[in-house]
Specification:
Blueprint lengths: L10 E7 L9 H14 L1 E12 L6 H9 L4 E7 L3 H6 L6 H14 L3 E8 L6 H14 L3 E6 L21 H17 L3 E4 L2 E3 L4 H7 L4 E3 L2 E3 L14 E4 L2 E5 L3 H9 L5 E6 L2 H15 L2 E3 H8 L3 H4 L1 H12 L3 E3 L3 E4 L7 H7 L17
Helix pairs in contact: 2-4, 5-6, 9-13
Length: 363
């Protein structure tokens, strides 16, 4: 159905199969899915084909199948190895289980293994997370995403089982992140930005060096800006200057398919102002430097006049040594890289229009 709306046969440079536990699919279902994708799309020779796996359910046979189907990158939601924390979040996966999964993944030929860690979880402390980092470093993943836990129980039903009293304070969260940052840097990982780290020889780290780093809905990427074709429940796509999100409940999603139309919940077409602000945010998050002359020439604006209010708000961060503001550029300092999300939010005029909306906290 999606193929009807694409003007030509597309070449896939990246495929990400995520959404929690895609390895829940049976072998026949996984083979069928990949066969259909390859039937309708051409895959580039160097395509990154990644999948999220759950070490609690995956087997050597599963990993062998994934490698056979062309998957070359895998991502594991480790979160935290501390037993008390795992009990508190109702996700039990001992270190030995993850270690076995990693060894098996490497044995079948996965080129890159990524870990997702979360700080700010219930029962978590500076000391307990330091021990988790020891174990993570021993497993030597190529990339590490260190996410701040977003406690939004009104939006996510499973979080209602979490006792808010057990959550670490904002100060404790900050200390855990700073400790993790120092530790990972000392171990040779490169700080990519926001909450991502990679080994020096990883393509993400190399992209930081040559300024080719990009960011999309999946996070940081080495691939240039391209269309994102969203398939599956709640997934978000980007075609040209438009965004689209699929329906978020299974019943609605299947009902739309059964009725013979795309299971799209909403779409949004970006204005010239949206495109301008998106480019500014992208530059700050990926390159840490915004070239004002280039922006002015491309969008035919006076940057100082167009963003007068934003620049006034940014001066607070400049006074704290987190931003460098001058007539030629806006640059994030080394100290300010941890707060690039806050700087980017200055240029997102939609945030100020959201009344009553709740978002995850910066720290």
């Amino acid at each position: 159905m999606v193929k009807q709306y694409l003007t030509e046969r597309e070449v896939v440079s990246q495929l990400h199969l995520g959404g929690g536990t895609p390895t829940f699919l049976s072998e026949d279902e996984m083979r069928g899915l990949m066969a259909m994708l390859r039937e309708h799309f051409d895959f580039a020779d160097d395509a990154e084909i990644s999948i999220e796996i759950d070490p609690r359910t995956v087997t050597t046979q599963t990993l062998q199948l994934l490698a056979e189907l062309g998957f070359n990158r895998t991502s594991l939601g480790v979160q935290d190895f501390d037993e008390q924390v795992q009990v508190a979040v109702h996700r039990i996966q001992p270190y030995s289980m993850v270690e076995q999964c990693i060894n098996q993944s490497r044995a079948v030929g996965f080129q890159s293994i990524n870990f997702d860690l979360i700080y700010g979880l219930p029962k978590q402390s500076l000391e307990s997370f330091a021990r988790t980092l020891d174990q993570v470093i021993a497993l030597s993943p190529a990339r590490i995403a260190l996410y701040n836990y977003a406690h939004l129980p009104t939006r996510f039903k499973p979080q209602r089982r979490i006792n808010e009293v057990d959550l670490p304070s904002a100060e404790q969260r900050l200390q855990i992140f700073l400790m993790s940052l120092r530790r990972l840097l000392a171990e040779g990982y490169v700080y990519i930005g926001l909450d991502h780290f990679a080994k020096p020889d990883d393509s993400l780290a190399l992209a930081v060096k040559d300024k080719s780093l990009h960011r999309n809905f999946q996070g940081y990427t080495t691939r240039a800006d391209c269309d994102l074709v969203a398939l599956g429940l709640s997934s978000i796509g980007k075609i040209g200057a438009s965004y689209v999100q699929n329906l978020r409940t299974l019943d609605e999603y299947y009902a739309a398919l059964d009725a013979g139309h795309l299971p799209v919940e909403k779409g949004f077409h970006l204005s010239q102002d949206d495109l301008l602000r998106r480019e500014i945010i992208m530059d700050l998050m990926c390159c840490t430097t915004l070239n004002i002359a280039e922006i002015e020439a491309k969008y035919q604006i006076s940057f100082a006049e167009y963003f007068h209010d934003e620049l006034e708000r940014a001066r607070f961060y400049a006074d704290e040594g987190l931003l460098d503001l001058n007539d030629a550029s806006v640059s994030v300092t080394s100290k300010g890289r941890m707060f690039v999300r806050a700087f980017s939010m200055i240029f997102d005029h939609y945030l100020s229009r959201q009344s009553g909306a709740k978002y995850s906290k910066l720290i």
